[in-house]
Write a structure and sequence with these properties.
about 625 residues, mainly alpha, 24 helices
Amino acid sequence: MTALRDAIDYTTLGWVKPELDETLRQARIEIEDFAADPTDTSRMRFCAGYLHQVQGTLRMVELYAPAMVAEEMERLAQALQEGAVADRDSACAMLMRGVVLLPDYLERLQSGHKDIPIVLLPLLNDLRAARGEPGLSESVLFAPDLQRPLPGGLAQAAVANDPVPVRNARAQPLLADLRAAMGPWPESGSADARALSSALEALLGHVQAEPARRMLWVGASVATALADGAIEATPALRQAFASVERESRRLFEDDGFGVPRAESALEPTRQLLYHAAHATADHPALRALNETFELQQELPSASEISHAQGSMSGRNRALLDTVSAAVKEDLLRVKDALDLHLRTAETDLSRLAPQVEALARVADTLGMLGLGIARGVVDQQRAAMAEIVEGRRPADEGALLDVAGALLYVDATLDDQVARLGAGDQDAPGQGDLAASEADKVLDVLAREAIANFGDARQAFVAFIETGWDHGELAEVPRLLREVTGALQMLDLPQPAAYLTGVCRYIEDELIASRRVPNGRQLDTFADALASLEYYLEALRERRFNRDEILDVSRQSLESLGYWPLPAEREAGETASGEDVPPPVVSDADIERTVTALIDRGTGDAGLRTDADAAASGR
């Protein structure tokens, strides 16, 4: 029956949820406008009106804890309107927090999760504190089903046909006994629990109304457990019994009705059941209460509380979609600015300065959402853009296209990542799984871009040979390879990154700075080093096994070239040996073999690939 009731509640919530979301959105707009112009108090009047609608709707669907939050928000909005709040900015921040977190909680309920009001208590008390009101205890949010029928063995009212004055007169001695039992229970003492239990059980036989009978039976059961030491006599429990005693006297006032208001009897009952639910002792009276009201189902487990608290993070899907749209809009503006800069051959780099700030903003937003890897990609491109704007890096087409390509990756994968963040299901992948999935996508993108850079470097080296050793053809190769080195470091692959640094140093020191011409053996060795690293990246992207053994060719080639281990960096203008060396004589056969191998490497048919495969197989 409970499951069916919950299913009905969730269905009803689904009907009103769109209206609630829209109303809370309107309230958020009013809060933002009031924060911008605190003199316009009409904003808070409208906000309070919207929150009153939310409260009424939540009470209609019997979601009392969220309704209490909406009520406290409404009172805070009214206090802001009247200027009765000491710290206006803090109060506005609390209201904004409420309109963000309340949809989180409702979205969690709509997805079928258990209602756990206790997680709303911190928000509830923070809202009260903003008005200077004291906090509430956990018992306020304890909401068992008080409509459940009482056990069938309870005695029925023995004086059902007596006139009301007669019935009330007969109950007076019992009320005196109840008052006497409560008398010795000041704040620091304890009650006569046996007498308290007997008086409540006796009164039960004089009452017909179901809410009152429920209150008296629960009170008698808790008093019996108290007498046997199964429940601790706390001040809060005394207050609950004081409420029972007060409502019992009201039951038998000579008013011609003898029926208390329903809510008057329900509140003491709920308070007593809260103490019974949290009692750890095994007692027959407590077991009866637990079975009748299913109290243990009202107490969430530690894992349920943890999951509910995790959902109260401001990451409801509607908000995430809004944030995602804003991030995508920023990325689109940056990409449009880069495209315009390339198409118009703009030379004023200061026009790109706003894009650096935009990327910093996007990186911060992704960080707040917990998308660490996407944030790292954007932050890396922000740093690259900053170098371009400051003139520390050439603003060539390749550099700007690299930035645009990385931003395109973030844009393309953002929807999937936001969808996973907003899936508040326990069966959804954990954060570790999400990070692994995100890392796989980043690996694929970076490996693909790195391989493209290798292709450009290979073509430049072919042009270097075919133009008769024109060293100008190698000018862009160090930059291309350094970008690949950065990608390998981002992927936490220090060994291949170090080998690639060796290749880059050989090109810069021997070929560009010293303007050397390699002999036939050096051509083959350098081509092997370059090809093995490219093949390693392909194996990495395709998740092949034993790919680290491919690097043996790189290490051996660098050792032959004298660039492994890495030598000390040279001073500017220093040559390899300190004197001019005439270019070696390289046979046409050597040149043709190297050029053919480098070109074939681009189509995957080179003998170098066979060498790398052999290294991987342990030849």
